[in-house]
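Quick one:
INPUT:
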């Protein structure tokens, strides 16, 4: 079960993912092709609507041509 605190963390992660994707100049569709994740799922991740697996994190990092840790480098909200 996803708690309200978890939802805040997922939203912050999603905002960071969107920022990184836009910095790379990738559309949702281009990112989708690069990591084999449906673009609607990427949109949901960016909105903080779903919790992802470790393998999804790795796929997103590959699409961004970045180390996976960069996806976790954001200022989490104090819970």
């Amino acid at each position: 079960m996803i708690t309200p605190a978890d939802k805040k963390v997922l939203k912050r992660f999603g905002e960071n993912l969107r920022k990184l994707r836009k910095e790379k100049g990738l559309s949702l569709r281009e990112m989708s092709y690069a990591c084999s994740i449906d673009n609607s799922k990427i949109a949901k991740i960016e909105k903080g609507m779903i919790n992802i697996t470790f393998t999804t994190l790795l796929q997103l990092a590959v699409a961004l041509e970045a180390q996976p840790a960069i996806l976790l480098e954001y200022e989490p909200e104090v819970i």
